[in-house]
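Private note to self, pasted from the team thread so I don't lose it. Backbone tokens:
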């Protein structure tokens, strides 16, 4: 069953049940209160009857009544006296003359001026010290039958009086009829209201379900409209957040897959080109008779391309190892770190007619020295390759900034165009393919640097202006002066 119908039926069942139970309790309690009020009134009338009979009996003389049978004298005298007194007793109330009946302890009627044929079977169930009442139906009329005991010279009699309460039962029936009409009306109105309410409640959920189906089909841009209901609003927001997260993850997976395909394609290209050339020269050496100069040229080219493939293989291994290892960092002084680096790079820059300046603020940094030296060496070598003119200049500046240590390497080379900035750390990517080939680059330097920086939980930023130069900054977290 759909949630819409579950909400509708459950709400209607609960509402009708609560209304029915409440109405039953209300009608029944009103009916019982009416019966109790009538019982109180009929007992008050019974008390008046008993008081009047007792008064008349005290005034009457038993000696006026004699019977031949001496054995039955007392009982006969009591009944005769009671009949005589009751016959002469007339009491009026607001509804007219008060009717009553007198029965003996065996339940036999002694006196009766009540016109209805109403049994007195309940008389024997009333003790001589208590009073009681019962409701009886006679020919479609309802009567309240009250009875109280009366002691007369040792004999027990019961005074019974009656009150018609058909109007109370009629009122109860009218209330039940009204209840049925109101219930039917409430069910009709409630059904309409609950249909609208259930539709409003389930509409956002239906839209949410529709959105999930769209996402399941691959439409990750699908979003839900945030509802005004707090719970559904929170659900919609969480769903949209999940959808955005899934879309982002799918996008990242696509990008990773694209990078992987590009990476594999680049490897294939980097291997295929030198291998094709090497095979061509090897075939020429094998199939043709060459002079010594041609033989040396072919062998030298095969050697150079072989070394390049070897370098490419080692770089790939380094990159693969870096992706699957953790490093152990240790504190090291910046002077101890930069001094060997400067000594190593100065001869290379002198040979390329490039001025090299080093200025480092003294501090204690937490790094893996060999890996971080690889980063700096690669960045400095890239700066050298970017300078294609005389009067080249490269600076290495180390300084503390906001509790971090910055290693900033700047050159006055040709710079990098803005569209190229997001790709420079990708494997095999080279800004100037032809120059990189001449200089022996395979395009893995910055990719390796990026992995090392990631292992150090550091940052690598680039700031370049095309035609003027580039600055690369390594930001190492945490520093001690």
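Design output:
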């Amino acid at each position: 069953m759909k949630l819409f119908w579950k909400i509708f039926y459950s709400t209607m069942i609960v509402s009708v049940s609560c209304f029915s139970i409440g109405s039953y309790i209300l009608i029944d309690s009103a009916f019982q209160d009416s019966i109790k009020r009538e019982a109180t009134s009929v007992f008050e009338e019974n008390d008046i009857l008993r008081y009047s009979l007792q008064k008349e009996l005290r005034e009457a003389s038993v000696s006026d009544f004699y019977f031949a049978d001496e054995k039955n004298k007392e009982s006969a005298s009591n009944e005769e006296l009671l009949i005589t007194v009751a016959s002469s007793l007339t009491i009026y109330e607001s509804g007219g003359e008060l009717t009553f009946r007198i029965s003996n302890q065996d339940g036999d009627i002694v006196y009766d001026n009540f016109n209805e044929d109403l049994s007195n079977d309940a008389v024997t169930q009333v003790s001589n010290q208590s009073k009681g009442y019962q409701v009886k139906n006679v020919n479609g009329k309802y009567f309240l039958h009250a009875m109280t005991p009366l002691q007369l010279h040792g004999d027990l009699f019961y005074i019974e009086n009656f009150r018609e309460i058909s109007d109370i039962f009629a009122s109860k029936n009218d209330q039940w009829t009204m209840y049925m009409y109101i219930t039917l009306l409430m069910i009709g109105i409630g059904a309409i209201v609950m249909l609208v309410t259930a539709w409003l409640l389930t509409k956002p959920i239906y839209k949410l379900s529709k959105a999930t189906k769209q996402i399941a089909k691959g439409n990750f841009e699908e979003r839900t409209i945030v509802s005004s209901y707090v719970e559904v609003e929170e659900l919609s927001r969480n769903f949209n957040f999940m959808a955005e997260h899934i879309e982002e993850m799918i996008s990242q997976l696509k990008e990773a897959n694209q990078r992987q395909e590009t990476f594999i394609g680049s490897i294939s290209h980097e291997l295929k080109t030198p291998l094709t050339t090497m095979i061509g020269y090897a075939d020429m050496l094998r199939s043709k008779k060459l002079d010594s100069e041609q033989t040396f040229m072919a062998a030298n080219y095969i050697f150079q391309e072989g070394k390049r493939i070897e370098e490419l293989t080692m770089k790939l291994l380094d990159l693969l190892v870096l992706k699957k290892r953790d490093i152990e960092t240790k504190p090291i002084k910046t002077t101890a770190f930069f001094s060997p680096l400067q000594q190593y790079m100065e001869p290379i820059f002198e040979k390329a007619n490039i001025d090299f300046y080093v200025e480092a603020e003294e501090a204690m940094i937490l790094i893996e020295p060999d890996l971080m030296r690889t980063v700096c060496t690669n960045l400095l070598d890239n700066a050298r390759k970017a300078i294609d003119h005389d009067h080249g200049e490269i600076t290495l500046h180390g300084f503390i900034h906001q509790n971090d240590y910055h290693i900033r390497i700047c050159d006055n080379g040709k710079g990098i165009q803005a569209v190229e900035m997001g790709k420079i750390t990708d494997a095999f990517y080279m800004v100037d393919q032809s120059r990189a080939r001449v200089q022996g680059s395979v395009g893995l330097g910055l990719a390796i640097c990026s992995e090392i920086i990631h292992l150090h939980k550091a940052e690598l930023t680039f700031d370049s202006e095309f035609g003027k130069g580039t600055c690369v900054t390594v930001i190492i977290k945490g520093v001690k002066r």
